[in-house]
Amino acid sequence: MSKREDSQYQKDQMLTVEITDIGNDGEGIGKIEGYTLFIKDAVIGDKVRCKIMKAKKNYAYAHLEEVVEASAHRQLAKCPIARQCGGCQLQNMTYEKELSFKQNKVRNNIVRLGGFDGEFVDSVMEPIIGMEEPWRYRNKAQYPIGRDKNGRIVAGFYAGRTHSIIPVSDCLIGVEENKEILDIVIAHMEKLHVEPYDEASGKGLVRHILIRKGFDSGQIMVCLVINYKGKGGEFIPGQQELVDALAKISGMTSISVSINTEKTNVIMGYDIRTIWGRDTITDTLKGLKFEISPLSFYQVNPVQTDKLYGQAIEYAGLTGKETVWDLYCGIGTITLSMAKNAGQVYGVEIIQAAIDDAENNAKNNGIENAKFFCGKAEEVLPEYYEKTDREDASLHPDVIVVDPPRKGCDSACLETMLKMAPERIVYVSCDSATLARDLRILSDGGYVIQKVRPCDMFPHTVHVETVVQLTRKE
Ligand code: SAH
């Protein structure tokens, strides 16, 4: 058949297909005579029966109806609602296969989107850093509070791309204390008739519950995000009773409310009031103490963060005298982890509150060779560069570390990095597609990729972190 008509495959058509590949979002991919089917929740190696949801000329999205023959890589999802929740896309794939999928995803993006030779990329790739125990790894959870079909108050997760809440008593990638805390808050709300917030009407009080735990310190923080419009008095009816119940939980260190009266998808409100205990919890990372407030950015998987930073430090090749720039530094975790092995470290970050945290963190840890700048990396760096005395060798950066958000580095930032010509660049990335694009620019600008190491920060999801070491061509 030379030309396939649009009508060849249609909505609601049932097909049986073998899954031969995995898409970027973790979906199974099967082909029938060159026609591609994308099937969510199908695992590579499965033979499945599926129903077409949306048919295009050369491909279709189909719904998994039945696994006819299960793949050797398939396993029963540990969480009973993994499919509905959508937070974990890969729970029905063995962890071993998940790791190899992530390794390949990074490799293929660098080859295809970065335009690098496949054999070359294979020669610089190091094996992905996986987790020994890939469950209960998250130190932070944000549960929306609402009502279920029967009108009961529930905490849970928004069903993929919707606003309806699927109740979850115990999310398996979060800590065990989450359930205990949620049960206490919900029982209190039921007892005193405290209304959960309703997105449609903008009425009701309790919107979200944020829970954070310092894995090293064991300290726990609870922050109730409330649509509070009163003045003075209690934030929540029966506040003292609720606080007393929560304070009994082992490790409880800080209980606060975050006032958010806006009709918005943004979870947290900026007005935070501590109602019991301390304003922050403390955690230790790479031997340094960090103070974490409800609004602070802090990596969510501390076990893997330790390994990721360890890899970044190794790639930075520090001997104690280097000048290091850490761009997109957040609360300065990477900057400060590198400070004791460097001469001078500089951190750049766009959010003022994070810079304030970074400066406090430096002080609390007795670090004196760290300096932080608030602003856009693509503006702070060129400005600094223009002002620098290029004859003064002490100002020349030896290492630049970048850890940008998903959209990658701004081109002005990359250009200045090339002009500043550090010996090494360490690129920490949470999106291998933009990483690949930026690696092409750095490579064309005179840098050579030495090593690439993926790190699994978010087991059972399709997200993968990567650290890359580049060195300047002589
Ligand atoms: N390295 C840190 C944070 C990485 S997250 C850590 O490991 O914890 C990326 C950070 O980049 C966020 O803190 C975000 O606020 C910041 N950011 C986003 N755009 C930026 C820009 N244009 N310039 C500087 N920082 C930016």
Q: Can you describe this structure?
A:
The chain is of the alpha/beta class. It folds into three domains: 3-74, Nucleic acid-binding proteins (OB fold (Dihydrolipoamide Acetyltransferase, E2P)), CATH 2.40.50.140; 140-285, OB fold (Dihydrolipoamide Acetyltransferase, E2P); 301-472, Vaccinia Virus protein VP39 (Rossmann fold), CATH 3.40.50. Helices cover 26% and strands 29% of the residues. The protein contains eleven helices and 21 strands. It has helices spanning 82-85, 95-112, 118-124, 177-192, 239-247, 302-316, 333-339, 352-364, 377-387, 411-420, 432-444; strands at residues 14-22, 28-32, 35-39, 47-55, 59-69, 140-147, 153-158, 165-167, 206-213, 220-226, 252-259, 271-277, 281-285, 288-292, 323-327, 344-349, 370-374, 399-402, 424-429, 447-455, 465-472. The protein has a seven-stranded mixed β-sheet. A seven-stranded mixed β-sheet has the order 17-16-15-18-19-21-20, with helices on both faces. It starts with 13 loop residues before the first strand and ends with a strand.
How is the topology of this model organized?
Elements: E1 14-22, E2 28-32, E3 35-39, E4 47-55, E5 59-69, H1 82-85, H2 95-112, H3 118-124, E6 140-147, E7 153-158, E8 165-167, H4 177-192, E9 206-213, E10 220-226, H5 239-247, E11 252-259, E12 271-277, E13 281-285, E14 288-292, H6 302-316, E15 323-327, H7 333-339, E16 344-349, H8 352-364, E17 370-374, H9 377-387, E18 399-402, H10 411-420, E19 424-429, H11 432-444, E20 447-455, E21 465-472
Parallel strand pairs: 3-5, 10-11, 15-16, 15-18, 16-17, 18-19
Antiparallel strand pairs: 1-2, 1-4, 2-3, 4-5, 6-7, 6-9, 7-8, 9-10, 11-12, 13-14, 19-21, 20-21
S-adenosyl-L-homocysteine (SAH) binds at residues 297, 299, 328-330, 333-334, 348-351, 354, 376-378, 403, 405.
